[in-house]
Fold these 4 entries.
Entry 1:
Amino acid sequence: MSRIDGARAGEAEPGGCAAVEMVIRGRARDIGGLNVARLLPYAKRRAVGPFVFFDRMGPVSFDPGTGLDVPPHPHIGLATLTYLFAGAIVHRDSLGTVMTIRPGAVNLMTAGHGVAHSERMAPEDRASGMVLDGVQIWLAQSQGDEQGAPGFSHHAADDLPELRIAAGVGLRVVAGEAFGARSPVPAPGGALCLDIMLDAGCAIEIPDDVPERALAIISGDAAIDGVVHEAGGLAVLRAGARPLVQATEAPVRVMLIGGPPLDGPRAMWWNFVASDPALIEDAKRRWADGDFPPVAEETSRLPLPPG
């Protein structure tokens, strides 16, 4: 097997095989005291299907007395999908929702014309310390829905289909439909999201059910059609390719994301996504003027960035 060595953070590297268009390395960002690797958007790849944002959170170990603190901030035109491998996050929003997400569950918040939320560590977890590990994803809403009413749904881990494809090959259908199973998560834009786990030496052929796809290497070294990719990269797949993904010497976890192409270009600024930049300017004004509804049990909020 050949091997793809990691490029510098924020850069892309060649795919190394016919099935992979490019591999994007994450750029470091600090989110409320948590270092994340941002894989999307990227200058040469703004979206994969409806997925316009992909943050790899952790794994990070918080000492007792410390924790995640993201004060209230606004969104428009997107759905945030939070999925954890370890730890817990308390979500509060301007709809009155207070929900703790734990590993294997999904929080899906639909922003529409505007919603605000916070993400923090629960007091008991802060007191004892905790390892936090997961992903947060943004999906652009369709042009017909981006100014609709905001909403929130929580889906417990037991509600998501969990499949054993073969010996040593398991997956959970986080969003969309694959291998005859459908997730109850109402993700927009025909989104497909799979959490795939491979034991050492085991492999799975990636389906081409949707036109645009990418593989996020969560942990372990994954061989894609014989080319080994280290953890932390996002391998953007070519249309129609059905690569074989294999765990080499240790277990591997990858996430497949994808879907149909967006129904037009999107502008992104801070936490706002819109088909019309004027909607972003309006959201800026509303947040600066305090026109978004308040978040339950919160007294602070993030200021509007300059620009």
Entry 2:
Amino acid sequence: MRNYDICIIGGGASGLAAAASLSSHFHTVLLEKNGILGRKIMATGGGRCNITNTACAHCDLTLDFFKSLGMELYHDAEGRYYPYSNQARDVARVLEEAALEKGTEVVLDCGVTKIQKKVDHFQIFSGKRSFSAKKVILAVGGKAAPSLGTTGDGYGLARSMGHETTTIYPILTGIECGDLQKIKGVRARGTVRLFIEDRLLAEETGEIQFTEDGISGICVMNLTMHITAEKGASVRESLQRYHLELDLAPDFSEKELLHRKSSFGILSYALSQIVSLEDIKAWRLPVRGVKGWKSAQCTAGGIRLDEIDMQTMESRIVPGFYLVGEILDVQGKCGGFNLQNAWETGIRAAQHLNEILL
């Protein structure tokens, strides 16, 4: 068993941000269950990595962090920041290089199965291997996109340390609405409104993508944050209360549509065969479900925030134990908000450790 000052569990966005921000004076080890670091980072933003957004409260923290690593960023008209190279792999690489420059020892193919708190250190187990560290940063992500390694292992580890989780469910994914096979692959610009019974919960405008059993696209995925099962009710019972209304002519008023004979000409021919002119401003679709963990971009729910000092990311239950990134009950819409949470919480944990250990 090797002894370290700090053990970071998880080599994704929050774990790498922490490693890159820690002092090189520490003896740090980073344990990653995958065979490479930053695997999920490489898949974000359509392979471009939407790093943060001008609308994020602490966007400047992230911008300064990446600038300090030598990575230039740019933002688009909607405030989304990307690496200047437009390559998500470059983001993972610059973080890995920064961590290694700090002297971080990286152990790959090392999934953690158990953490034990001792009197003056933590013992971390991975199969037959074990590691000892004075401080632990748990940065294993949530449960979304299990093909990239985020399979929800961290919740069990956190619970074993005395933490509680709120209800966990997949978000930022497509919505199932029934058989739409005839318009599979069709895209249209529109406004999507989510209702629970007759009450409007949220609406988003953007490109809507029709699939064989529902709809997708950023504007649709953002709405999944509002679809939840009520306490004590089954998922099926809860979903029956939701429905969608699609305005597929958001740039046209009702008056402007009066002279038209059909929806064709605004909509594609295929879509116009399904959506009449009468329905074009409020096409109603049921919510049959949301796509599962496999296609979700983010996890809703997680470790209760009242159990964490959100300024330092240290556990209020177990001193010396830090929790960062998607494992927390923090979630945002598409556009860099969730990666902002990952960078920000990882950096905060590292800054606190730099202050108390040096």
Entry 3:
Amino acid sequence: MTTAPAGSSRDLAHPTCAEIRLEGVLHALSDPMRLRIVRELAADGDELSCSHFDLPVTKSTTTHHFRVLRESGVIRQVYRGTAKMNGLRADDLDTLFPGLIGCVLAAAARQESERGDG
């Protein structure tokens, strides 16, 4: 894995675009909590802090979900002051797997809508 340029012990490792694997992305998106994070990031379109997300899991589990998303290449995390900011790597993912994120997000929205109507 590649890291951001040296300079801070708070730099987080991220895979390069060439290192992102389809199976890793699909694994990351297969968990409901991680999919929820990705949906919120996509809907907002900007970086969101970890504290923005109100997930019904422990803090350590939330940290694990963010790590899986980062290490699979789905999100990019950077520190801005004391906040860890998260952004969807939509451009990288669309370059590698055209339409994948859009289809997954549309299917998740459709599924949520059907559950709400049921």
Entry 4:
Amino acid sequence: MQAAKCVFWLPTILTHLNKTIEATQKLIEQKVFAFAGNVGTPTSKAALPLLERHKIPAVGFFTGAGLLRPGKGDILNFRASYVQETKAVITKALQHGIPATGICAYVQNDAYGMAGVVGIRDALQEAKSDPNTLKTLDDIIAMEGDEPARNGKGPVGVYTRNTFIARDGYDSLKSWESLQNTRCQLVVTVGTYEAIARFIAYAHSNEEPWIFSAVSFTGADSFLKTLSQFNITDRVIMTQVVPLPDSDLPIVQEARQALGKDYGYVSQEGYIVGKLLLHGLRKLETDGKPLTRENFLATIKGQSFELNGFNMDFSNDNQGSDLVVMTTLSQEKWLTMPDSAWRGWIKPSNTKTN
């Protein structure tokens, strides 16, 4: 197999969606073999129709959005979805005594944020939550257009992408508490590290006793650094979709050695996506099959295999891993979250509903 026959480009998130389309089109004209590791939900949404039209595989995009699950075109996801991440936290919260009325959200006002709200809605539906609350969440999710007015509609506060103003979203949650004679106890966040950290700091300045959770895309290392700048030291949960750094899996040890000082949760994900690409290419070489997109996809779609000890299962869908690990901020690092943390955070009086 000649390496020159296969070119992989790793375009990162761009400021404007029209630039995403322009850059994607330019790469397509250069006849690239596949796109891998693209970052973000809005940019993926802009690029995917072009990739579908030209039958170019989209591999391991750095987003857990539903528009790629299954999505249109040849899409191979590595990571668990945002729905799975938010649902995992809420399910645990409900099990440890937080009532459904205590689940709220602060999210980016776009498809990325709404993916998290879908996870909240699914978890609350399973818990047989109040039908009116579920209807409210459905209405918020269904709102269309750029920057729809989602604040003040339910247990959700939103902020505008690429901004850091937390007050409007915070006021939305306080309005919900007042109107429903309830209180938020777990605030599920879906956004960028700076925006979420500033929101948590703003809530802290108002002495809110809320527990906060963040999804993996928030970026563990940058999020941790920003929280530290605001002196936030506890009551923050972060879900991860890759094995923890202390895992004894060979792929984790390899990544740590290869990445050195650049190793982290995000770079670990990129390393796994790279291994996924190499798995397909090497399988073609071993089987003596021509390097075509169709043959490459066939080495992964419908298959189950290991990547240096890490299980990948594409037998039932286009997502290889369902792994969601909950970590908590402790001792200025992300540590595996024990059940005892919930018991320490939730006081008996907090579990009562009005």
